[in-house]
Specification:
Helix content: 55-70%
Number of domains: 2
Radius of gyration: 33 Å
Strand content: 15-25%
Number of strands: 4
Order of helices and strands: HHHEEHEE
Strand order of the largest sheet: 1-2-4-3
Length: 135
C-alpha cells in the first residue's frame, strides 16, 4: 500500500483554508450590505411615519383649513367655502391680491391636497378664485 505524501495533505488543507477565508470575506460583505439596507429601510420608514402623521390626520387638516378660512382678513375678502364629499370648495368673486397671496401661501405650505385651482385676474388689484382642496 502506498503512503500519502504529507505535502499533499498540507496543500489540500491550505487550499481548504483559503477557500473558507474567501467564503468568510464574501459573507462579511453581504452582511454589511444587508445592514446598510436595513438602515436605509428604517430611515425611509421613519420618514413615511412622519408624513403619515402630518398628512394622514384628516380631521386635524379639516379643522386647520377651517381655521385659516375663518380668519378676519379672509372673511372681509368675501371668501365662501363649502364642504362636500371629502373636499372643500373655496371661492371668491372679487379678491384683493394681498389676501389672495396670503391664503395661497398658507394652503400651499400646509398639508393639503389641492385638486383644482382657478385664478382669474379681474383688474390690477382684484382676482377671482376657485379652488378645490381634497382630503
Amino acid at each position: 500500500m502506498k503512503r500519502v505524501n504529507p505535502l499533499h495533505i498540507i496543500a489540500l488543507l491550505s487550499v481548504l483554508i483559503l477557500f473558507l477565508f474567501s467564503q468568510i470575506i464574501t459573507l462579511k460583505s453581504e452582511i454589511k450590505e444587508a445592514k446598510d439596507e436595513i438602515k436605509e429601510r428604517r430611515r425611509i420608514a421613519t420618514e413615511l411615519l412622519a408624513y403619515k402623521r402630518v398628512y394622514g390626520d384628516k380631521e386635524h387638516n379639516k379643522r386647520a383649513l377651517k381655521k385659516i378660512l375663518q380668519q378676519p382678513s379672509f372673511q372681509k375678502a368675501g371668501i365662501s367655502f363649502k364642504e362636500q364629499r371629502g373636499s372643500f370648495y373655496i371661492s371668491a368673486k372679487s379678491f384683493t391680491l394681498r389676501p389672495l397671496n396670503s391664503l395661497l401661501t398658507k394652503i400651499f405650505n400646509g398639508p393639503y391636497e389641492v385638486k383644482s385651482l382657478d385664478i382669474k385676474r379681474k383688474d390690477e388689484q382684484h382676482a377671482q378664485l376657485q379652488m378645490e382642496v381634497a382630503w
